[in-house]
Each structure stands twice: as C-alpha cells, then as structure tokens.
Write a structure and sequence with these properties.
Layout (H helix, E strand, L loop, with lengths): L26 E8 L6 H10 L12 E9 L4 E9 L9 H5 L4 E7 L3 H17 L5 E7 L2 H8 L15 H11 L2 E4 L8 H11 L2 H9 L29
Parallel strand pairs: 1-3, 1-4, 4-5, 5-6
Antiparallel strand pairs: 2-3
Length: 242
C-alpha cells in the first residue's frame, strides 16, 4: 500500500480541478457524521479537511464543526461538516445536528461488527426523521488495519485487527437501504476524498438551490477551513475522536 507521501489524494491542491464555473459562488451543504465512538469519524473529516491524520484522538464532546470545498464540473460545493460525538450519552443531541442536513456519513469500524449494527440503527433513524432528500453514505473505516492481515494470516496483529464486517455484506445492505457505500482509511486517505466527491455529485441540483434560499438558518459554526492551509478548530468546538 502506498505511503501518504506517495498517495495522489494527499495534496494541497483542490480535490477536483475544473475549468467550468471555477469562480462560481459555492453552495453550502450541511453534512453530518454519525456513528459509534472510536470508529474514526473525526479522523475521516480531518483527513478530508486538513489533509492530516493523528493517532489516538480524544473523543468528541458534543460536536465539532469544519468546512471544506469541492469543485464539480458545474458547481462548487462547500461542505459544512458537523462531526458528532459517538458516545451514547450524546445520542439525544443528534437530531439537532442532522436536522435540515442535505448529506450524512454513517461510519463503522470494519473490525468491530457491533459498530455496523449501530450504523444500521443510524440509517433507519435518518430515513425516518431526517430530510426526505438526504444523501446518506455508509463508510466502513479502518481499512488499513485489515488489508495486510487478509493477505497474511500469520501477522502479529491478525487476531486483534481481524475483519468482522465482510465488504460484500455491507455493500449488499447499503444497496438494499439506498445508501452510498465505500470502505475507507483515514490513516492512509484511501477513498476519503472519493467518498465526499460522490456525495457532492449525488445531491440533486434542485435540493442545492432550495438550500441556497434558506442559507443562514439553523446551526452555523464559527470555523472556516481552507484546503490551501491547515484548519484550526472553531472556538468552543469539541475535541475529536479517532
């Protein structure tokens, strides 16, 4: 597997270059990350926004807010990302963050089957209570932990990092539930940018136009992160979990 320095997705350039409407006003898209604690939600969003990875992040308290832009052929999307805490005591706060969201990423750890069970619960809750047009992606994170072990069962960490959620099972569930699906690694950046790009492409244009008319309503964060430079956490945001 390529190192971070070799990976084309670890870059300070915009994620997607486009000559069409490159200077257009960005369309704000509210995106929420959900999933059990320690599945890698914060690591995924920091990889996407800051182009960085940090081992042993402290758990998120409440939620953290970050932003990032992506350029599609016909429009610029500015993701306003709410990274929510995974601890059960914060579950009751989740509707405040996914209310009026145009997109959501539900994250699970492919080495822990119980986190997939929780992910399915989040998917049902979003489909029942969130915006009817919300685009939901299912992300099986920590792919880096199993890629080497699946090829070599004699690995020292093979038992500790054994895959518990088969990719084909997760993909079949996502297709049945109408979710986007991708396995990712926040550590190596594998499929992280691709996942956000696919979400941006999936959001209907009419949904984006409607969102533009209601810009400024609901929860707004103080953070404003530019891809060209590292981000700083907005004042008052919670610490992030790996």
């Amino acid at each position: 597997m390529a190192s971070e320095n070799d990976s084309p997705s670890i870059t300070t350039r915009p994620i997607v270059q486009s000559s069409v409407q490159s200077n257009s006003k960005p369309i704000n898209v509210k995106l929420v990350l959900l999933g059990e604690s320690a599945v890698g939600k914060s690591s995924l969003v920091h990889r996407f926004v800051n182009r960085s990875y940090e081992d042993n992040r402290e758990p998120t308290i409440g939620a953290a807010f970050l932003t990032q832009r992506v350029q599609l052929d016909d429009r610029t999307i500015k993701f306003e990302i709410w990274d929510t805490a995974g601890q059960e005591r914060f579950h009751s706060l989740a509707p405040m963050y996914y209310r009026n969201a145009q997109a959501a990423i539900i994250v699970y750890d492919i080495t822990k089957s119980k986190t997939m069970t929780k992910a399915k619960s989040w998917a049902k809750e979003l489909q029942r209570q969130a915006n009817s047009n919300i685009v939901i992606a299912l992300a099986g994170n920590k792919l880096d932990l199993v890629e080497g072990n699946e090829a070599d069962n004699t690995s020292v960490d093979s038992e500790q990092h054994e895959r518990q959620v088969p990719e084909e099972d997760a993909r079949a569930y996502a297709e049945e539930a109408g979710l986007l699906f991708m396995e990712t690694s926040a550590k190596t950046s594998e499929n992280v940018d691709t996942m956000f790009m696919e979400i941006a492409k999936k959001i209907p244009l009419e949904h984006l136009i409607a969102a533009g008319r209601t810009e400024g309503r609901g929860l707004r964060g103080a953070g404003n992160v530019d891809l060209m430079q590292p981000a700083t956490e907005p004042q008052g945001a919670g610490r992030c979990a790996c």
